[in-house]
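Sequence in, structure out. Go.
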Amino acid sequence: MTLLEKCSSSDTVAKDEYGHALDMATRSNGAVYAIVGARHHDTAGSAYLISYDEATRQWEHVVEIIPGGASQNGGFDGEEVDRSYDQFGYAVSVTSDW
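Output:
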């Protein structure tokens, strides 16, 4: 794996600022994970947990993390999310021992 490899999200656009924040960690089993912030995605922002598959040499989507309730997580509904401008994903961090 090199720092020049590119990953992207299938549901973001340039204004979402996918990649605004990034952190990576290698777990004790050798698995490599990264968390990528997209602070303007769907207005409120989101973060993406991705993993690196050494066999295919590709980054793979694990989960999109959204602010409390933007959809299935519970909390905000509809218009409240659109008006929140939380910039969720502005700063992200992942550790090797989670």
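Check: Residues 78-84 form the longest helix (7 residues). The chain has a mean pLDDT of 78.
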